[in-house]
Carboxylic ester hydrolase
Amino acid sequence: MYTAPLLSLPLLSNWTQSATPDNSFRTKCLKFEPRIGNAKVELVEYHILGSTVALPYRHPTCGGPGKSAALSQDVCRVALRIDTSERSGIHFEAWFPAAYDRRVLATGNGGLNGCLDYASLAYGTQQKFATFATNNGHNGSSGAEFYHNADVLHDYADRSLHVGVVVGKQLAQQFYGMEHTKSYYLGCSQGGRQGIGNAQKFPADFDGIVAGAPALDMNNLISWRASFFPITGSTTSPDFVAPAVWSGLIHDEVLRQCDGLDGVRDGIIESPDLCKFQAEALLCTPGKKINCLTSKQVKIVKRVFSPFKYGNGTLIFPGLQVGSEQMAIDRLLAGKPFSDSQDWFRYVVRSNPAWDPANFTTEDALLAQQLDPFQIRTWPSPHNTARWYEFLRSKSSEEEIGKWLRYFRVSGMYHCASGPGAWMIGQSASVLPFEPRSNVLAAVVDWVENGVAPEGLQGTKMSDGADAKVLFRRRHCRYPKRNTFNKSSLDVLPTTSNVDDWKCV
């Protein structure tokens, strides 16, 4: 199931008096001796319910806290170093919960990262999955380790996930003394691409896959992101469009032109593809010289929202979706190179650490596409997932595709999480109940194990802060249907509309 808008320390005991320990599980954990070829045991730890897990392997560039959230049950943590070649290897972790439903769950990653997804490890154990993660064969958020090392690049492209799944299943059998019954995957962004790519190359690895915002057509995606810096220029450029202008003037105009197309103005654009945004509406005139854009700035805005193409008109990648400009401010519209694209061209495509991202052209994009290391392309944010789905529809019927694939566009969600819409659908660290209606992982489990394929997915919007409360909910439609307001068109806040005020058409 794919959805979108798809690792030698001494034995340690880290537990507190927050709960009564299960001594039999603790003993079983601390006596566990993993038996995996080409692997070195780095640690085996027991953690009691309510405790937090120190993360000594988390690279500083990965960000996040130095420890996990409080565990929801007792967990046995196992870490391995697994050799994948003479000059490469992966850091692998498996977290085994005391309460186990004989399901295993693998997790993905994001960007060029070699950062274990500890939030998903904790989330998986909360739902009684034996859960695995790897560092994709390198540490930290940089792509520098790809430089002149095809084996590390191979790990990143697909090998680390597959090896992690194979090893994780073996360890689960060794630890629990029984075979797992079902195998699942949960990943977003690069993790979404990993899930879909794994299904193509290793179809026996998983029974069900959740692939959020998959980074499909990866070479062209990276090239598209590289194209932004030459378009926007640096912050010192006389025509630079400042972040405050993108989040204020431009975003307000996007909402004015696009928000009402779904039947209501509520600050959430349900179907960005329906909007033909006219940036010329922001052009300064003799009678309007403030809160407007120069002709050169209008041209920049138009290029940002336009498809990225070769000189002959061949599409490289779709343009930025209207409504996502606020999310894009920090990395794509900030007047600086997109770091992942810079690293990819320096250390993989051009093999030149001095390559200047300001000089990026479509020649670089063509070279990246021709190189396509380890078929990392997968296929030529929700914009591109629809292209992939339409490609599948051109090869098969809707009925046949529906037997194994469901695609949901989540309106008002930024990249994988956050945003003004009902974006919470059961991602890692979710506070939602584990039930199919509103939890995407539970939905794929229900589909695999009970044959109930989801027709819709209910999203939730929570308030910020420690005392988070539900602000509103909205059902997200199965593609190609789209959400439309079911009442008279009017200006409302999302909190004033009911789930049933919307229908999929």
